[in-house]
Write a structure and sequence with these properties.
There is one protein chain. By secondary structure, the chain is mainly α. Among the domains are: 95 residues, no CATH class; 155 residues, Tetracycline Repressor, domain 2 (Orthogonal Bundle). It is built from 12 helices and 10 strands. A hairpin with a 5-residue loop joins strand 3 and strand 4. Helix 10 crosses helix 11. The longest helix has 28 residues. The protein is elongated. The model has no long low-confidence stretch (mean pLDDT 93).
């Protein structure tokens, strides 16, 4: 949107931030609400387009127009109110519209058609053309249904007749059948998809314990810097961090120096400064997967802790490792988290196989 200061005539672009509690800020500052935003629009301090004196071109025919209605202050405020409802978990205008469509399909009374008309008109005007997600018919079936019999649709379109209303209703019935077929197809293609509400992600935060690790295990023990000595390819390492960077080193002396580091942080710093293997980029995922498997195979209590995270995504966060491994505030590939999910699945599969194995 465009804003201007009290003592300036020129306008400048500004971001508008909308919050679930109804607060609205410009550029993250100057908090107001919906009524306050309406006042700013009315005063001219805020504009939807940079004022340039040009008038909007009026479509020659509303019925034949193929583009949205012009954005107005009123429709913009309705869109902002809709976004506040979405953020707060309340139904949006389009959600209420679909409820009204379903209600009219079930019982085609004039009372329900009046509810449908009100719900349609509650959608911000500049967004109505897209409300059905149909690039060809756009919102014409709705415009037909909300027009009284004997009146021209949109004022310059065809006269609404019982037959035209039935055709519009058939449009929604055909859409329902198509949706049902698509849902059945998805059920076949996605037969192995998880059912029910998704489990919240498990976030493994980077945490420092100056006085040593807590006696009671928590998800911190799933991280690579946790002291859980294990053996990998005949060598023993204090942590996964030690092992990863020791194996990164191109020479044996570097490997042994990193493995002997007093802490995981020191091992990482030594490893990062070492000359690395030329083929490391192609090997690192396989190496990390092998190290994690060894850690959890050799520490059953940690394996139980990993399995107890359930089916949720595992997000490995922090600032000490590269974005390749972490889920950071600016993105990241989260490969540690993804590998932990894989190993968790392998542990569950192995447990199921043991349970199904015949005894005797």
């Amino acid at each position: 949107m465009w804003c201007r200061h009290d003592f300036q005539d020129d306008y400048y672009p500004e971001d508008l931030f909308v919050y679930a509690d109804g607060r609205i800020t410009r550029g993250g500052y100057d908090a107001t609400d919906l009524a306050g935003l309406a006042g700013l629009l009315a005063s001219g301090k805020v504009a939807l387009a940079r004022p340039d004196g040009r008038e909007r071109t009026v479509a020659p025919s509303k019925w034949l127009a193929r583009y949205p209605e012009p954005l107005t202050d009123e429709s913009f405020l309705a869109e902002v109110a809709d976004e506040i409802s979405r953020l707060a978990g309340r139904p949006r205008a389009v959600d209420l519209l679909w409820e009204a469509i379903r209600g009219y399909q079930r019982d085609t009374t004039e009372a329900n058609r009046s509810l449908l008309r009100a719900a349609y008109l509650a959608v911000p005007a500049h967004r109505r053309v897209f409300v059905l997600g149909d690039m060809d018919r756009q919102d014409r079936p709705l415009r037909i249904l909300v027009t009284d019999l004997g009146s021209p649709v949109d004022g310059d379109g065809p006269v609404a007749t019982p037959e035209l209303h039935l055709e519009a209703l058939a449009y929604f019935a055909d859409g329902d059948e198509e949706d049902e077929r698509a849902e059945q197809r998805r059920a076949v293609l996605h037969a192995d998809a998880p059912s029910g509400a998704p489990q919240p992600p498990v976030v493994l935060h980077e945490t420092v314990y100056p006085r040593g690790w807590p006696a009671e295990l928590g998800n911190f023990a799933l991280r690579n810097d946790y002291d859980a000595p294990f053996t990998y390819e005949g060598e023993t390492y204090p942590t996964v961090v030690h092992a990863y960077w020791a194996l990164f080193a191109a020479d044996r002396a570097g490997h042994d120096r990193i493995r002997a580091a007093a802490t995981a942080r020191e091992a990482q710093e030594l490893g990062a400064a070492a000359v690395g293997r030329a083929d490391w980029a192609g090997r690192r995922l396989a190496v990390m997967a092998g190290l994690l498997r060894a850690k959890f195979d050799q520490h059953p209590r940690l394996a139980e802790l990993l399995v107890a995270t359930g089916e949720g995504a595992v997000l490995h966060t922090g600032v000490s490792e590269a974005p390749f491994w972490e889920e950071g505030p600016r993105g990241g590939r989260n490969w540690i988290g993804r590998l932990l999910e894989l190993i968790r699945s392998e542990l569950l599969a192995a447990s199921a196989e043991r349970a199904e194995a015949p005894t005797g």
